Amino acid sequence: MASGNLPEDVVREILLMLLVKSLLRCKSVCKRWYTLITKPSFTTAHHNCNAAIKRNHCILIKRFLKESNKSALSFLSDEISCDDHVPTTEITIPHSNHFLQMLGPCNGIVCLTDHRDIILCNPSIRAFKVVPAPSFNYPQGLFSRSLGVGFGFDLQSSEYKVIRIAELHEDDESGGYSFHSVKVEIYDLSTDSWREIDAVVPYVWYFPCSELLFNGAFHWWADDEDHGGESMLSFHINTEVFQQIRLPDVCTFPDGKEKPFLVLNESIALILFDASEQTSFDIWLMTEYGVAESSTKLFTIGPLVQVKRPILFWKHELLLEKANGQWVSCDLKSRRLKEIQVYGAQESFRAVAYIKSLVSINQGSDID
After folding, report:
1. CA–CA separation, 125 and 21 (whole Å)
2. Which of 338, 315, 259, 367 is nearest to 77 (CA)?
3. pLDDT score recorded for residue 153
4. Do 161 and 106 form a contact (C-beta atoms < 8 A)?
5. CA–CA separation, 144 vs 166, rounded Å?
6. What is the pLDDT of residue 368?
7. What is the mean pLDDT of residues 106-131?
8. pTM to 2 decimals?
9. Is the pLDDT of residue 3 over 60?
10. Which of 65, 118, 222, 317 has the lowest CB atom count within 10 Å?
11. pLDDT digits (tens, 9 = 90+) for 71-104
12. What average pLDDT does the segment 140-157 reach?
């Protein structure tokens, strides 16, 4: 395209309509295009355009590949019903292991963590940043470990934040440890530094797929001390305020059930199940955010043979992991199962609805 005589606003509008893959090639056309495409205002506008017209949408998968002994990210297009459909673009994650979580996304950026190491990544442009470890001075004899990690974007300050809920404990002579307190620490990407905030929070628990970014807040499972059960703990990214959300009485602790949070019909869905040879999945939906009384049991899927746990709601389907590390999809209307050509180590999968993006990570670097 001979763009030398075109006004810059016209060139900009044309480029905004291109896919991320095409724009990455267009950066090499000329200096003018490179400067335009790499402007933060352009990358933000391009992401918002993609979100508005539902373009560049896909499923982002994190899984552990035994053959390479590494965790990897893959893209799966939205047409998952194709018989020969397989993930594309394997991106090896540095500093990774089997139990890596994937949090987000925010504007195409995801947070990868095993609750010890934390990595911010935009897989669309193969960029990542290893977040420095917190370096707070705790009282002598006390040590910290992560109970929960969250990630979000502050719309008011245009700031990406990582939230760490840490337990302080004291080691004892028997090789165990005694609980001391819980602290909250926040990493700001723009300053590349951590800070503490004053907050009293309940004890946070971890279940697979139980850490969720939704409605401008990050959510974890936590104790419900007032009602003797479990609750949903939310952290609002803009205000940095915690809120404890009561859950239906069906959620008792401990009950031996797994309880992932997923998003269905723009609401938080709670899935209760016991992993066994034949597993049934009870789907509950909180139709009014933050109101326990609005939680309604929609339906039960199963029992399903050798299906271990849910991964993601996608359009009219629920994606699930089988015992052999393969995916299946369950049509929410017909309840019919269909195998998907996605494989990985058991219990290593995470997946999110994803919009490909050019948004960069400040002070990041490219993955080889």
Report:
1. 9
2. 315
3. 95
4. no
5. 6
6. 35
7. 92
8. 0.88
9. no
10. 65
11. 899 998 766 554 555 676 688 887 666 678 999 9
12. 88
Contact predicate 55/19, CB 8 Å: yes
- Token reading at 278: 């034949």
CB burial string 116-143: b at 16+ within 10 A, e below = eebbbbbbbbebbbebeebeeeeeeeee
Q: Give the pair of three-digit tokens for residue 292.
A: 């326990």
Phi, psi of 265 (to 5 degrees): 55, 40
Burial of 279 (0-12, 13-18, 19+ CB in 10 A): buried
Amino acid, res. 263:
V
Domains of the chain: 8-46 (no CATH), 47-366 (2.120.10.80)
Q: How confident is the model at residue 154 (pLDDT cuts 50, 70, 90)?
A: very high
Q: Residue 12 carries which side chain, given as an amino acid letter? A: R
